[in-house]
Specification:
Elements: E1 2-6, E2 9-19, E3 29-39, E4 49-53, H1 71-74, E5 79-83, H2 96-99, H3 105-112, H4 117-132, E6 137-142, H5 144-155, E7 160-166, H6 176-197, H7 200-214, E8 217-218, E9 224-225, H8 227-231, H9 242-251, E10 254-258, E11 261-264, H10 266-276, H11 282-287, H12 302-307, H13 315-320, H14 336-339, H15 347-355, H16 365-369, E12 375-380, H17 388-397, E13 402-406, H18 413-416, H19 419-429
Parallel strand pairs: 4-5, 4-6, 6-7, 7-12, 12-13
Antiparallel strand pairs: 1-2, 2-3, 3-5, 8-9, 10-11
Length: 433
């Protein structure tokens, strides 16, 4: 272990060996990394542990500096563990480079099937016993981290002291098709709100999409920017400042190049490449629909199939008529694995994962209905990424769970609201409000 300091905190690096397949503990082992954070003035105190599970799937824990965001509140009473979930960050990262060593797409898909919430929670349980000597700890789950926390409540409640969930109460039984049938209408509402705020963006978005339909544009990173790829910038609309960020992207799209011609500016292309590339989180794309999968029914590119039932999102039809171009978000499509150079080598692996029919169940409704673990969840009104009605139905199914339903924040509320959001959830879980 290596310890070092940042302003106000002491950090310690931890690396744990865990089985790739927890059903075969003597088989292949992988490494999981986690960063311990404790207030500098309390470094030697016997504080209870809080483990943070990041959103995603496929995202490493945030790299904080000092007591940023919710850490300010957490460090007043916890020793915090920022976990890089398996396959992310420093935890045996899985991407086109590391997966290239596997025998082929089938071996890649079989391997990545062990990188969902069920395996992440079993990693947590091994780590908890090594760090706490068996004492239960608190879990804070953001977005997909809340999916993991709900699985934790279903399978290993003995390891839990309290659970706080922000924007991440999943449906217990919805297929991916149900998730996306609910998602596209939400996405349309986010588009309408954006265009109401920035009406000038209607023409700008149409102009950019029309240019992409007529020109083969490859970004400096090698990403092929099609109208559909451009539409996927709508993922920004689910965060507190995302609408403003999208507006500023669109307003600088073109530069004049002489003779009345205009091209997409280098600055626009660089900014769009940074937003669209999955180089830093390839498992988000590869496992996104798999994080909803339970039982024998395949996901089979659910977002792509369901989108056909929402023709307003068809870019070509919008450009042929006079409708606003609708952005999409939180959806993964087959074209992602041809457009993005970080994903192209994983295309066949992704096809096999989409066709897989042996996904184990993730949630135990009977156990959730009987839990005695204090649980509090922030549910964001009209959350782009997680269907609010699904979250509320699950909240009613978990015994004693208390919700804070708010439109003060978007999906990134635990980051934007920081100490206030976590403080509210702690008070709810402890029945102090």
């Amino acid at each position: 272990m290596t310890s070092y300091r940042q302003p106000g905190v002491v950090l310690t690096d931890h690396v744990f060996g865990v089985p790739l397949d927890h059903a075969n503990p003597g088989g292949e082992q992988i490494e999981v990394y986690a960063r311990e954070v404790v207030a500098g003035s309390r470094h030697a105190d016997g504080l209870p542990w809080l483990v943070y599970l990041e959103g995603g799937p496929g995202c490493a824990a945030r790299r904080f500096t000092g007591t940023q965001a919710w850490l300010e509140r957490a460090l007043t009473e916890y020793r915090v563990l920022l976990l890089d979930q398996r396959g992310t960050g420093r935890s045996t990262p899985r991407n086109r480079q590391t997966l290239a060593a596997f025998a082929g797409p089938g071996a890649q898909a079989d391997h990545l099937a062990h990188f969902r919430a069920d395996s992440i929670v079993r990693d947590c349980e091994l780590i908890r016993r090594r760090l706490t000597g068996g004492a239960p700890w608190t879990v804070l789950g953001q977005s997909f981290g809340g999916f993991c926390a709900t699985h934790y409540l279903s399978t290993a409640p003995e390891g839990l002291r309290e659970v706080f969930i922000t924007g991440g109460l999943p449906s217990l039984d919805a297929h991916a098709d149900d998730v996306y049938r609910a998602a596209y209408p939400r996405m349309r509402r986010k588009n309408e709100a954006h265009y109401a705020r920035y009406p000038q963006d209607v023409a700008r978005a149409r102009e950019i999409a029309a240019h992409l339909a007529e020109h083969d544009v490859t970004l400096p990173t090698g990403y092929r920017l099609t109208p559909e790829a451009f539409q996927s910038l709508g993922i920004l609309l689910g965060t507190g400042t995302g609408s403003h960020h999208l507006h500023y992207l669109l307003e600088n799209a073109f530069v004049p190049t002489g003779g009345g011609r205009r091209e997409l500016s280098d600055g626009f292309q660089e900014a769009v490449a940074a937003e669209l590339s999955f180089a830093r989180r390839p498992l988000y794309a590869a496992l996104h629909e798999a994080c909803y999968a339970q039982g024998p029914r395949p996901t089979a590119w659910s977002a792509e199939r369901v989108r056909a039932g929402f023709p307003a999102f068809d870019a070509a039809a919008a450009l042929d008529g006079d409708s606003p171009l609708l952005f999409t978000g939180e959806t993964i499509h087959p074209w992602h694995f041809t457009a993005d150079p970080a994903l192209r080598p994983l295309r066949e692996c992704a096809e096999l994962l989409a066709a897989r029919t042996d996904w184990p169940a993730l949630y135990d409704p009977a156990r959730l209905a009987a839990t005695d673990i204090p649980v509090a969840a922030a549910v964001y009104h009209d959350d782009l990424y997680v269907e609010t009605e699904h979250s509320l139905r699950t909240a009613r199914a978990i015994r004693g769970l208390r919700t804070w339903i708010t439109d003060e924040y978007e999906h990134d509320g635990v980051r934007a609201g920081g100490p206030r959001v976590l403080d509210r959830l702690i008070a709810l879980a402890r029945d102090e409000v």
